[in-house]
Specification:
CATH superfamily of the largest domain in chain A: Fumarylacetoacetase-like, C-terminal domain
CATH class of the largest domain in chain A: Alpha Beta
Oligomer: heterodimer
Shape of chain B: globular
Helix content of chain A: 10-25%
Structural class of chain B: alpha+beta
Number of helices of chain A: 8
Strand content of chain A: 25-35%
Order of helices and strands of chain B: EEEH
Radius of gyration of chain B: 12 Å
Radius of gyration of chain A: 20 Å
Number of strands of chain A: 16
Distance between the termini of chain A: 49 Å
Largest interface: A-B, 61 and 35 residues
CATH architecture of the largest domain in chain A: Alpha-Beta Complex
CATH topology of the largest domain in chain A: Fumarylacetoacetate hydrolase, domain 2
Number of domains of chain A: 2
Chain lengths: ~300, ~40
Amino acid sequence: MTRPYVHADAVVPADLLGFIEEGEPALRAAEEALSFVREGNVGGPRRERIVFEAGEVKVRAPLPSLTSRIAMAGANFYDHAAGALSMIRGKKITVEDVKRDVEEGQAPPWGFWKFARNVVGPDEPIIYPARTERLDYEVEVAAVIGRRGKDIPEEEAMSYVFGYTILNDISARDQPNDRGFFLAKNFDASAPMGPCIVTADEIGDPHTLGMRLKINGVIRQEGSMRDMIRQFPFWIAYLSRDMTLYPGDIICGGTCAGTALDTSPRDAEGRTRPDNFLRPGDVIEAWVEKIGVLRNPVVAKQ
Amino acid sequence: MVLTRMRLVVYGAHRLGCLLEDGSIVDLNLAYASLLAGRG
């Protein structure tokens, strides 16, 4: 009776990274297994349970591995970039201004990394860090890499994507002298992720997805991946130049307008009002079309 | 890479599951083991 288990471990690994690494054969086998369950076979070889009702088990972050690298595209939506620059510079910057800067090469690509250790799953708390009084949110679509690649050409890049999930880029906006976001983007629970990874073919073109973020039921962000400045093929090619991408690595495409950063004017000293930023007790719901809702409460640090 | 349509979750003791339309979760590894056992 151990043979089915041993064979299953090899073909449909029980862990997410192993499954991603097995690639198409694992997905085909999993589809077969799902059909078997849908025919009414809901017990394991030893009659153990294999189907669980909603809410019966804890759903965790779909993080492939603690070794997964999480690359974040910086200011990669026209509307968010225009809003953020307007607030930072204290004068109106339009989407057309940003488009012109991009076309003229005045807005080079940039980004930062988030650590896998800081990932939390659906409904897990975001612990308000002691280091900040301006905690912000950013709903993002995260592309999960499915196979190893280096120097990947843009025209082949999308074939390296296994699927997509949601990542909320929690950010401390008031870190003085924090060049490169050394402290602003990484602290415990700064990367809520989930609730699931939707395989690439079910998503189709990710650059058309709608996205939205609510705080306590009120819409703060509402946008579309159509507003990306640089799309996933660019980032996959850009990042994989001289650096191998591995199964389970993650690339986040940026966020749309409506963050506290791009909606909070600054005073003469460059300080923002706290009104639009997160507070302990808030509940964040990050939604992306075809993927679902990632919900997390914000709690005070104990 | 040609992929099948699936919504993957990590649940419980970090096991891989598939989210169904009604919100229930199927353990893919055990489901495949069950399929193999059924085939003898």
